[in-house]
Amino acid sequence: MELINWLCSYAWVLTRLVNRNSIGKGIIYAPPLDIEVIMGILAKRVDAHVGGRIRDRRTGLGLTQEHLANALDISYQQVQKYETGANRVSAGRLYEVSKTLQSEVSFFFEGLDETFETMPIGHGGKNRSTIELVRNFGAIDNPSIRAAVSGLVRSIARPELDVM
Fold first, then answer.
1. Residues 87 and 108 grouped into a single domain
2. Could you list the residue range(s) of the whole structural domain that residue 16 is in?
3. pTM given for the model
4. Cα separations (Å) of 118 from 43, 78, 145?
5. Domain check: are 157 and 110 in the same one?
6. Going by C-beta distance under 8 Å and a sequence separation of 6 or more, which residues neighbour residue 25?
7. What is the dihedral of CA 56, 58, 60, 61, to 10 degrees?
8. How do residues 121-135 score in pLDDT, each as one tens digit?
9. Angle at the Cα of 140 (from 124 to 13), degrees rounded to 5?
10. What percent of the chain has pLDDT over 90?
């Protein structure tokens, strides 16, 4: 848990280090990651898993997003948001979805990995934090700060390559 707090604190620092007001003013303190943040991350993973299972069941029955949306009296865009995990499915709505898709509510949670560790994303362009980090890193004008941030990220990502 200490390692997770440390890594998340430095990730927080990296995303804010680019703020032009902070350049040359010393080290920025990042508060340690708390359990609510971890649970929020886990909740988003559950939302994405449940949404993926809705999509699997819907396509398995040969239904389109529009068919499901009409049955639930919502827009197909809302179904799309549920399926991608962009919007959370409420308990009542999940019950309606399970009845419409002729399955048990538990079906949508089958295969859920409850561990905190995330699987790496193959293409960094799909990871919002990666895109934000690259965009912010590009905005750093000071070459010495860019080098320091680059070294910090490298040592966090590949500690075995860190030479001291």
1. yes
2. 1-33+125-164
3. 0.51
4. 13, 26, 29
5. no
6. none
7. 170
8. 444 455 677 777 778
9. 70
10. 39
